[in-house]
Amino acid sequence: MELDRRYVITFSCPDRTGIVARISGFLAELGGWIVEAAYHAGDNWFFTRQAVRADSLPFGVDELRARFAAVADEFGPEATWQVTDTGVPKHAVLLVTREPHCLHDLLGRISAGELPVTLDAVIGNHEDLAGLVEAHGVPFHHVPFPGPRDPKKEQGKVASFEKVRQIVDSFSPDAIVLARFMQILPAHLCEEWAGRAINIHHSFLPSFMGARPYHQAHQRGVKLIGATCHYATADLDAGPIIEQDVIRVDHGDTVPDMVRRGRDIERLVLARGLRWHLEDRVLVHGNKTVVFR
Amino acid sequence: MELDRRYVITFSCPDRTGIVARISGFLAELGGWIVEAAYHAGDNWFFTRQAVRADSLPFGVDELRARFAAVADEFGPEATWQVTDTGVPKHAVLLVTREPHCLHDLLGRISAGELPVTLDAVIGNHEDLAGLVEAHGVPFHHVPFPGPRDPKKEQGKVASFEKVRQIVDSFSPDAIVLARFMQILPAHLCEEWAGRAINIHHSFLPSFMGARPYHQAHQRGVKLIGATCHYATADLDAGPIIEQDVIRVDHGDTVPDMVRRGRDIERLVLARGLRWHLEDRVLVHGNKTVVFR
Amino acid sequence: MELDRRYVITFSCPDRTGIVARISGFLAELGGWIVEAAYHAGDNWFFTRQAVRADSLPFGVDELRARFAAVADEFGPEATWQVTDTGVPKHAVLLVTREPHCLHDLLGRISAGELPVTLDAVIGNHEDLAGLVEAHGVPFHHVPFPGPRDPKKEQGKVASFEKVRQIVDSFSPDAIVLARFMQILPAHLCEEWAGRAINIHHSFLPSFMGARPYHQAHQRGVKLIGATCHYATADLDAGPIIEQDVIRVDHGDTVPDMVRRGRDIERLVLARGLRWHLEDRVLVHGNKTVVFR
Amino acid sequence: MELDRRYVITFSCPDRTGIVARISGFLAELGGWIVEAAYHAGDNWFFTRQAVRADSLPFGVDELRARFAAVADEFGPEATWQVTDTGVPKHAVLLVTREPHCLHDLLGRISAGELPVTLDAVIGNHEDLAGLVEAHGVPFHHVPFPGPRDPKKEQGKVASFEKVRQIVDSFSPDAIVLARFMQILPAHLCEEWAGRAINIHHSFLPSFMGARPYHQAHQRGVKLIGATCHYATADLDAGPIIEQDVIRVDHGDTVPDMVRRGRDIERLVLARGLRWHLEDRVLVHGNKTVVFR
After folding, report:
1. Which of A180, A243, B6, B252 makes a 20 to 30 Å CA pair with C221?
2. Domain D90-291 in CATH: superfamily?
């Protein structure tokens, strides 16, 4: 067993005394060696993430999961939890359109082993990025979408999204990454993929929701531009925020300058958000996240 | 004459060729020693700021102003310009309510000679900050405003703002700083003080306009909070932005944490914006600014 | 008893399994309501900070301290710990020279209740800042130091530092803050005040140790300047770092510009570092710190 | 002729009055439309960069160069200048070892048209990155270097560097980018390639020069780590700095965490520095740079 293999427990429930003691006591009795432990309590809710050395326990992840289930039960029906094994690789599918920068960045990180994930497929509504994807040995699926003037646009979209859904679901991925995918995910997919569909929006939300955020930013004359990585929900650009960051612009930056410079922050923010998601560091509660970095 | 005394020319007009040559030629003929020169052209408009060593010219600021007027005239009626003299101190009046942090910060900077300004008065709609102001030897004017449940609230506000206006205008200040002044400036004062009334808003605008921005930010779960220094206009929190900055927050930050931590960025952003305004580094064009830092 | 009164336990010892369980179990048995809990393990050492609601325990801080001592004992002679009570205000003494900005900033934060501390005295080796200090109702002690050309400089310094020591020690302060104090603390005072003497150095250490760091930075042509808050040790500018931050400069920034702009980051970094120290968030281990922000 | 083609003049000389007027007058007489103009004066030296619309001049870059030479001559033998044409692509060669992240990032930016450069070749002292390079259609040259225990290490290095030199010089590149090339460039190559050889060092220089900067940073317990893009000179890690940036770390970051997180800042800082170099925005003066961003 690899030396740095971990079992990761995430758990949340209504706040009360004794939760930390119960969970850490449970792990201590088993001889579990905790390498990372983080807690948060707020708005009357409690959250924790514990990473335990796999080789410190006398059994595997399934047994740990079974035993932890009993502990979690003590905290009532609202308790939410999972136990994952860093030895079992996570899987992801990427959705793209034409902008290559986020895709290129993620492919580089994945191929360099920087992100703990297997990339099963990339789906594009245009073919532009097929070559880049296939050069990395990843299957590219082209699912065309109807153009803006197509008279049967709405039906066409439904059909296209159905194809996307079938491809995605065939992999049961842990993350469906909208890496500058320029189509609005329908509500039923947001729901089906809740907590797994990760979007990068090229503004500091809630500023400049919707289309052409850099144009909006230029128009308003802001002195910083940003990017937001969030879970996709039916409410456009309003899902739980995982990560945000900004860079400074000034009067000399045209819209194309902002587009170009913003790519640097989009790449970073998406890569960070995705990493935290894959490492089970993000706990969603209502429309907010607790991120145990 | 002080060695570092400067005459500062700011100028803007519709863009065309030869403007830089005309202005720099004008200064060169006079033997003017340019110590700072900045240009910007965008959206078909041209902007420049030139700082000339006062001792390099054979005459004073009035003569320079008179001669430059002739140059500016060549660029048509839309040209906007001014010539200021760093040897003539600028004046400011501050408007405050109860929050001391921006006031305290500005008083410290002014008394340490860090900001090139004479503070003529501080006006407060509460008396809380009178002691702090008077300890710095600055007159404090208390102008009470009607409370939220006062039946004659609207008339009362009109009368109070009229008193504020009289005090402010008695100093003809170069800057009227709303240093966390919790009353909305009426449209006619925004207009009268256009380009001189500087507000600090405790959010990264256009996010979280209006009341209680930190509560809004906490509610939305953003990962950065910010502050915006802008010229006050009749359109609330929508005036030309001079400066913005942000700091990172996380799930552990409560609203009071955000309020406390946000003060650090409010102080900085206001002090920077005010400095640039006082140094004639901010040129307003439409609803945007060119800031020659 | 105030609602937000906390008992804060900090504890560190050689790492092993079961520490979290033991401490949280101990608190759970007492019914302790943990409002903040942070852990870190690294380099074979374990660190934790726990904040417990005072009103959740059936006794006061002395009893908690006595009981926790028994728990701590189980982890051997290398275990280091303390239990503090946020209801008992911490005390600080400030040492200054002539630069007012850090002093002014801290006085403002303290008078606004932003920093949980009582300021017992300010000691200056020059009298320049006496007025500012006394305006805040804080006693100022002037302890002159011999000038650089004084033939008895060394003896004079010994005598001056002895006076400083006497004043400081008369308050037994929790923090001795060198707020731009331009004298090098002798080794025996660094030792006596180990873990309590907090310095702000105006560079991003370890760059530009020693004198005139902004001159050094300008000379080297760096693109960022910084400030470092650290515990003072006998090894000049090499003590455990509590906090650092930087701001961007460019070729247009002269040394005086850097000095002026650097003040903004010195103020912030010192205020943050001092806050974390006062809130018992900083655990020193060797020459490094664990900061549970 | 492309609409956005520019001729870019960079010029520096001992400071005096009238330089701006002379250069802008020269351009105005020709009808030159200046789209970007930046000036800096400091340490008695004057610097400028002017970008002129190519289609606003009645002749090509060679004629402009010839005419500008006469203007530059007026400012004495110390004046340094060049005139470049954005319509003529710049060329670059990259030197790499095994770390892929900077290489991958630059390949992505170049293939997306984000950096105005033609990449002629990548030279590696290991073969690891050949596949990545060739997938982008760029020739990869493997030049092995002697290992650390090779008895003829010194001679071997001389021979290897001679091969590197031959390959590089065969392209006469405008930029020789050391994209995490883990061999120290010999003094004669630093000299031959002065102002063209660009290195990325994985620390905030002058902190942590030399080998294993992240280990040094971890050892010192700094709270920020950085990266520095600079021109290579014979004095290791001491050349003129083009760009620097930092990211926050804390006690939880191990050396491998710093290595991983530092990559994000290395990539960005190198890409920014290279872009400014390629756009003729960097003027070197002594051991410092003026960067007209």
Report:
1. B6
2. Formyl transferase, N-terminal domain (3.40.50.170)
